Amino acid sequence: MSQQRNYGSCNAIFSTYPINFNKENNPPSKMLPDKSKQDLDKIAMDKSKLNKKKSTSVETVTPKKTDLASQGRMNSSPAFNSTSKSKSTTTLRQDKLKKAASDDKLKTSKSRGYHMTTEKSPVTHFCSAKPPRTDGTPFRTPSKKFFSDHSLHQSTPDCFGVVQFETPRGKSDVATDEPTLYEGETSNLTVGIRVRPMNSKELSDPKVMSIVKVQGTNITVDCDASQHTFSYDHCFVSYANTARANHASQATVFNSMVSPLVQNAFEGYNVCLFAYGQTGSGKSFSMMGESTLSNNLAPSEDAGIIPRFCYDLFSLAARNSHYTISVEISYFEIYNEKIHDLLANNSSGNGSKRAPLKVREHPVFGPYVVDLSQHSVQSYEDLQMWLKVGNSQRATAATGMNEKSSRSHSIFSIILTQGPKKSESSNVSSSAESSRRSKINLVDLAGSERLSQTCASGDRLREGVSINKSLLILGKVIASLAESTSNRKRGFVPYRESVLTWLLKTVYLLNYHPRQPSD
Ligand SMILES: Nc1ncnc2c1ncn2[C@@H]1O[C@H](COP(=O)(O)OP(=O)(O)OP(=O)(O)O)[C@@H](O)[C@H]1O
């Protein structure tokens, strides 16, 4: 019997901007208007067009040498901190693997592999299942770096210190002599930071100065008397002058950091990528981009990670002649701890807003959103229309820090299912009667806010408090996981304290392994 594995990989993009954050920003001159009836009519038209097409309707640090990227208004280059970071490369030992597998609490139980068998349908392995290699080479995870105690760097943010992400594995994974990680690679968590250019308002304010310098994969924040250096897997700097050397375009970010995840998804791995950063730092720009709403056959230059990811999915699918591929999407936001489906009609018949969706926890598959709509997407063109619908329904508002600030966390999910092609003559599945399902979560978190700078009051204030609270809990959850890792004990992890962490538990945080991978 072929071995089945459950793997996942996760990327995080941290967005930032290169200025001193303590300077007060003036509130914007005008507030964004509420959604106009005209917009809603347009959305309704788009949706009815989509509904005709759909077939089912049911869910941001060891330096590399690159030039010092100096910003337009950047301070003269300060000396870098003498602190250095070394990352140890660790390979899991076989006995550890066996131990991990024998630990019932940590491993993926057999039933976590989502086996859906009906008389007619083939077996479906949820979020896992790699087919056996024909050339005899061992399986390797798509891991990038594996954090260990030795990888701790004084200036690395606490939350990404010692968290180890390992893939939950099923019983059938145990008896293998192969290493779990790519040689030389140490983790399946990759962290990148992107610095956006200063906007015209910042450039025109003499009090605003650039305080961020990037060198290779190190970033130095020079504030007042102190200087802090952080190291990441990737550091990107975008300039207003896109022709400038080392400018990180949307394509650069996607190609260096995200593109490998598309391949991983096709190999049956679960993928989660989220953008975290202060409000107005460019998370939505990185995730969605600016001209997603035009009907292009291919992503425009400004298209962000989500449309590019989907485009690559469809491109790879088109080249695949061995499997039938289905792509289903869902898109929802967590606004003030309430879940709203961004691809459903959120107003009920009588004109009032639909009740928010509930989260329930399945004993085997974990937390899920009840009644979340899922849409089958056939092409990149279809996808653009759904993105248009979803983005238009997302809660945004003007704040003192961002003219169009996301007031919610958004989660764009893709279920990629690859099934065997039916034999033309017999109408029976050609090879193994199994299909692979990978779940891809692309998360655009709402920005953390300093309420004094956002000049928030009323609804904006309530939203800001809710956003900060859920981000705080996300930090707490990651810190708990990190602590459990260092203590080599499973401690209490407050997943349920926020809807965001509860929902991400299965797709991202469950990949955590609280023990050292090797001594
Ligand atoms: N890399 C970039 N290049 C050029 N402009 C950018 C870049 N990143 C962000 N911007 C611009 O900065 C502004 C704020 O970006 P964005 O709305 O994406 O921030 P955000 O982090 O999502 O904010 P919030 O958390 O409040 O939603 C936008 O006008 C956007 O066009």
Automatic annotation (TrEMBL):
<dbReference type="GO" id="GO:0003777">
    <property type="term" value="F:microtubule motor activity"/>
</dbReference>
<dbReference type="GO" id="GO:0008017">
    <property type="term" value="F:microtubule binding"/>
</dbReference>
<feature type="binding site">
    <location>
        <begin position="277"/>
        <end position="284"/>
    </location>
    <ligand>
        <name>ATP</name>
    </ligand>
</feature>
<keyword id="KW-0067">ATP-binding</keyword>
<keyword id="KW-0505">Motor protein</keyword>
<feature type="region of interest" description="Disordered">
    <location>
        <begin position="18"/>
        <end position="138"/>
    </location>
</feature>
<keyword id="KW-0493">Microtubule</keyword>
<dbReference type="InterPro" id="IPR001752">
    <property type="entry name" value="Kinesin_motor_dom"/>
</dbReference>
<feature type="compositionally biased region" description="Polar residues">
    <location>
        <begin position="18"/>
        <end position="28"/>
    </location>
</feature>
<feature type="compositionally biased region" description="Basic and acidic residues">
    <location>
        <begin position="93"/>
        <end position="107"/>
    </location>
</feature>
<dbReference type="InterPro" id="IPR019821">
    <property type="entry name" value="Kinesin_motor_CS"/>
</dbReference>
<dbReference type="GO" id="GO:0007018">
    <property type="term" value="P:microtubule-based movement"/>
</dbReference>
<dbReference type="GO" id="GO:0005524">
    <property type="term" value="F:ATP binding"/>
</dbReference>
<dbReference type="GO" id="GO:0005874">
    <property type="term" value="C:microtubule"/>
</dbReference>
<feature type="compositionally biased region" description="Polar residues">
    <location>
        <begin position="68"/>
        <end position="81"/>
    </location>
</feature>
<feature type="domain" description="Kinesin motor">
    <location>
        <begin position="188"/>
        <end position="519"/>
    </location>
</feature>
<keyword id="KW-0547">Nucleotide-binding</keyword>
<feature type="compositionally biased region" description="Low complexity">
    <location>
        <begin position="82"/>
        <end position="91"/>
    </location>
</feature>
<feature type="compositionally biased region" description="Basic and acidic residues">
    <location>
        <begin position="32"/>
        <end position="49"/>
    </location>
</feature>
<protein>
    <recommendedName>
        <fullName>Kinesin-like protein</fullName>
    </recommendedName>
</protein>
<dbReference type="Pfam" id="PF00225">
    <property type="entry name" value="Kinesin"/>
</dbReference>
<comment type="similarity">
    <text>Belongs to the TRAFAC class myosin-kinesin ATPase superfamily. Kinesin family.</text>
</comment>
